[in-house]
Design goal:
Mean pLDDT: 91
Low-confidence stretches: 350-371
Structural class: alpha/beta
Strand order of the largest sheet: 9-6-3-2-1-12-11-10
Oligomer: single chain
Radius of gyration: 23 Å
Strand content: 5-15%
Helix content: 25-40%
Largest sheet: 8 strands, parallel
Number of helices: 18
Shape: globular
Distance between the termini: 9 Å
């Protein structure tokens, strides 16, 4: 057997969102190809499969702008599994013809899948299967705290032809009890349909997660720091967000100008009323962590800096230049959250201990490890000493990205000086691929000159001892070789793919989140090479026996 994965052991994995898996229905899902990818990772000696947020998406299909912080994206459901469950016929799941195999086509995938979801729901409702009906009822009751509002929100969005909730009729928009009750009665069938889709995801995900655990593979998820303005979370809990009288944000989130974008990034999410959240014991956040950690073994906490201070932009601004830093209740927040999970770090406090200098392992009285919430702090960007102290106080591993290691020839940023307690990446979903990054000398969205970019590439070649022919493997080797406890590689970098395979270009909306693997692209040769390198640098799985 393999040990339960932990971020405190030397290990590695691959970042690939399920939408990027191959498959016949226009978008990757958690069916057959997900199991095949898990097998590929296990065969390569990997410990982790990291994903982006799995929530339902809206315009632009960004996983970081979801209509719910708790629900899952029905597009990830496997039609093959619905056929195996007897809810669809084999003829229902024929492949979409003429699809471009290396891109997600969300519109065609939705047109294909949604009628089949409806058919599966009708079949389920007609079926006399007490065990299945009981399991569905148990799920609805167990997830009632978020599922009731979410399913009503989805049904109301349909009735209002997709309009944002701030444009609904006043009674429903303002959540008057009588209006909510009328809507629940009027939309009862559609409410149950949306509950059914979440139940299917819960069932299919549990099967995939169980399989991954069996082969020694841990799953890393992602929690976006902010909620979308047009989301069930803001509609159901307006008291927790900075909103005007009309329900629209009064101030919005983003980041100032940085490496990625000259005018910063205007995300547009409403900001939290941290005073209201603190008064409520951060209950919404605690339940959000609980929901995510039920699906994943570890979680990347997006924009960790925002838990100490966040960039507040006036609503209505066209970019993120005009903003101000505002303090957030970082230490009190994390102590409260960790305490809710019985994590011993809630009572710890080591202000000023640099990342990686101390890596305390908490143990119980009988010598076994105490339960802990596995959190990766996404601390990229303007990392002040106060933010670093918050991260280190709770011993969260931060992130290091190799593509940032050669900008100014900073010794502390070079791979051999990465701290032990961190997660090292070749790149993230916001970066270009390694091959694209190396070839692209004129990224006009960034903040550096062409000469600075050229020097950065020269620094990389010199440090890696590379001639540039297989720079992606040279970067992979440096990532795996680094002292970082955990190393995560982009799937695109295993294949040496260029900028056409980039997942996201920060500051833009169109043409993102679309890249997909093509069938058979992850060959045995790639697997063998990664397995050898993983073993050579001591990141292979550890075996144990009872």
């Amino acid at each position: 057997m393999t040990e339960k994965p932990t971020l405190r052991q030397r290990s590695s994995g691959v970042l690939l969102h399920p939408t990027s898996l191959p498959g016949p229905h226009g978008v990757g899902d958690i069916g057959r190809e997900a199991y095949a990818f898990a097998d590929f990772l296990a065969a390569c000696g990997q410990t982790w499969w990291q994903m982006l947020p799995v929530g339902p998406t809206a315009h632009g299909h960004s996983p970081y702008f979801s209509s719910s912080a708790f629900a899952a994206n029905p597009l990830l459901l496997s039609l093959d599994k619905l056929c195996q469950d007897g809810l669809l016929e084999p003829a229902d799941i024929k492949a979409i013809r003429g699809q471009v195999k290396d891109r997600v086509h969300y519109a065609s995938a939705e047109r294909f899948k949604e009628p089949r979801f409806a058919k599966a729901f009708d079949a389920f409702e007609r079926r006399v299967d007490p065990a299945a009906k009981a399991a569905f009822a148990d799920f609805c009751e167990g997830q009632k705290a978020w599922l009731d509002d979410y399913s009503l929100y989805c049904a109301a969005k349909e009735i209002h032809q997709g309009l944002p909730w701030v444009e609904w009729e006043p009674g429903l928009r303002l959540r008057h009890p009588a209006a909510l009750e009328r809507a629940r009665q009027a939309f009862a069938t559609r409410i149950r349909y949306h509950q059914f889709l979440q139940y299917l995801f819960h069932k299919q995900w549990a099967e995939l997660k169980g399989y991954c655990a069996k082969i020694g593979l841990g799953l890393i998820g992602d929690i976006p720091i902010f909620a979308a303005a047009d989301s069930v979370d803001v509609w159901a809990h307006p008291e927790l967000f900075c909103l005007g009288p009309d329900g629209r944000p009064s101030v919005v989130a983003g980041v100032p100008p940085d490496y990625f974008c000259q005018k910063g990034q205007l995300w547009g999410n409403p900001l939290y009323r941290w005073d209201a959240m603190k008064a409520d014991g951060y209950s919404w956040w605690i339940e959000r962590f609980r929901a995510t950690l039920s699906r994943f073994d570890a979680v990347r906490l997006d924009h960790f800096i925002g838990f100490h201070n966040y960039w507040e932009i006036p609503a209505g601004d066209k970019d993120a230049v005009r903003g101000r830093w505002v303090l957030a209740p970082g230490e009190d927040f994390f102590r409260t959250v960790l305490r809710a999970f019985g994590d011993p770090r809630a009572e710890a406090g080591e202000p000023g201990v640099p990342s990686g200098e101390r890596s305390t392992t908490f143990v119980s009285r009988d010598g076994g490890p105490l339960p802990a919430v596995e959190i990766i702090a996404e601390d990229l960007g303007t990392l002040t000493k106060e933010v670093a102290a918050l991260r280190d106080r709770f011993q969260f591993p931060g992130m290091r990205v190799l593509q940032f290691s050669f900008c100014d020839w900073d010794e502390d940023q070079q791979p051999h000086n990465f701290p032990k307690r961190c997660v090292a990446y070749t790149g993230t979903h916001d970066n270009d691929t390694v091959a694209g990054w190396f070839r692209n000398l004129s990224d006009k969205s960034g903040t550096r000159t062409v000469e600075q970019v050229r020097l950065e590439r020269e620094n990389a070649l010199r440090y890696l001892g590379s001639n540039g022919v297989e720079l992606h493997w040279d970067m992979i080797r440096a990532t795996l070789k680094s002292p970082a406890d955990t190393a995560i590689l982009l799937a695109q970098d295993l294949l040496g793919l260029g900028s056409q395979a980039r997942m996201n270009l920060p500051g833009t909306v169109e043409n993102n989140w679309q890249w997909r693997l093509t069938p058979g692209e992850l060959t045995p040769a790639v697997a063998g090479r990664l397995a050898l390198m993983t073993g050579a640098y001591g990141r292979g799985p550890r075996r144990w026996t009872k």
